[in-house]
Specification:
alpha+beta; Translation Initiation Factor Eif1; 5-stranded mixed beta sheet; two-stranded antiparallel sheet; 3 helices; 24% helix; 22% strand
């Protein structure tokens, strides 16, 4: 069993909810997550299909977009509605539920973004 002092101590507070183990702030106000920059890519979006760790469910994943988090959210919404599917945007990655790689590539290119298929 890990000691709580090594893992950051408090992980939940009845006042603030979940706590970040690194900066010890509420997760909504976490400063260390905002400070971590994403690795700079080459400006080309990589569209792939994944199912590992998702209970066998297929997800179309878009990585490497040269956009900040504020611009990824509306683009994620556009991709989800264009595919008629659900999904999310987290940590600089757009996830669209289902196998929609071809549709996502087409939608990204219509937006003027460089995109290519990655994986199998």
């Amino acid at each position: 069993m890990k000691s709580t002092s090594r893992t950051g101590g408090l992980v939940y507070s009845t006042d603030a909810g979940r706590m970040c183990p690194d900066c010890r702030q509420p997760v909504a106000e976490c400063i260390c997550r905002q400070a971590r920059p994403r690795p700079a890519g080459d400006g080309t979006a990589r569209v792939s299909r994944e199912s590992k760790g998702r209970g066998g469910k297929t997800v179309t994943v878009v990585r490497g977009l040269p956009l900040d988090d504020a611009a990824l959210v509306p683009l994620g919404k556009l991709l989800r509605t264009g595919c008629g599917s659900g999904g999310t945007v987290k940590d600089g990655v757009i996830e669209v539920q289902g196998d929609h790689a071809d549709q996502v590539l087409e939608l990204l290119r219509k937006q003027g973004l460089a995109a290519k298929r990655a994986g199998g």
